[in-house]
Amino acid sequence: MLKTVSGRQNDRGQSMASPAVPVCHFATKKAKAKGKGQIQTRVNLNAALVEDIISLEEVDEEMKSVMEVLKDNFNKTVNIRTSPGSLDHITVVTADGKLALNQIGQISMKSPQLILVNMASFPECTAAAVEAIRESGMNLNPEVEGALIRVPIPRVTREHREMLVKLAKQNTNKAKDSLRKVRTNAMNKLKKSKDKVSEDTIRLIEKQISQMADDTVAELDRHLAVKTKELLG
């Protein structure tokens, strides 16, 4: 619980005025420090009590968003069986900027071994779409027939599985980069309040934010481990 101490007593028991100092009482639990065998104290600040300094709920939502983006990415692009939905959000660089493939092409499943991308509505983007598909990291080798892009689905080989694991790791590392940006932005925002609150309070909030980031990294790694096991069978 966060409260302030507005005064103290001198040696004679008389009350003396002093500036209000934020004091934070928080619940703790012991957890082993990762890889070090040490005991680490966890901070559990009440977000409502520090919302005037920084919104921990917003920081938490941003970190959760990073996790959700990775889950969505795994579901759509890192699968043993390539589906039309896997191609939907491949980014294509066009004269009008970066667009998702499904915004400029009609994607359909011709057979279990072939996906078609009809570029009739935007034929001028066909070459860029082919390049984007080829560079997607999904081990796809598209072929062009006029405004139609044929995308043969790779056979499920051990090499293909290992390639997907590599892609999953790359996507997880990108998620961690995004998470670091969230943490850095939160810390920078916190620094702006250093003249308004005590150093102890700032340190506690910094520790809380770092702890939230560490927990999210652990969650990202857990999802990667599950996906890796699924891909390798």
Structure write-up:
The structure is a single chain. The protein has 233 residues and is an alpha+beta fold. The chain has 6 helices and 10 strands. Strand 9 and strand 10 form a beta hairpin. Helix 1 (56-77) packs antiparallel against helix 5 (158-191) and helix 1 (56-77) packs parallel to helix 6 (199-232). The longest helix has 34 residues, at 158-191. The model is unreliable at 1-35 (pLDDT under 50). This is Ribosome-recycling factor, mitochondrial. Its main location: mitochondrion.
Please outline what is shown here.
This protein is of the alpha+beta class.
Overall spatial form: elongated
| Low-pLDDT ranges | 1-35
Q: What proportion strand?
A: 15-25%
- Please give the domain count: 2
Q: How many individual β-strands?
A: 10
Order of strands, main sheet, comes to 7-8-10-9
Helical content stands at: 40-55%
Q: Number of helical runs?
A: 6
CATH topology of the largest domain: Topoisomerase I, Chain A, domain 4
Helices and strands, in order, run as EEEEHHEEHEEHEEHH
Class by SSE composition:
alpha+beta
User: For the CA atoms, what is the radius of gyration?
Assistant: 26 Å
What is the CA–CA distance across the termini?
Answer: 48 Å
Overall mean pLDDT: 82
What is the CATH class designation of the largest domain? Mainly Alpha
Relevant CATH superfamily of the largest domain: Ribosome-recycling factor
- Largest pleated sheet: 4 strands, antiparallel
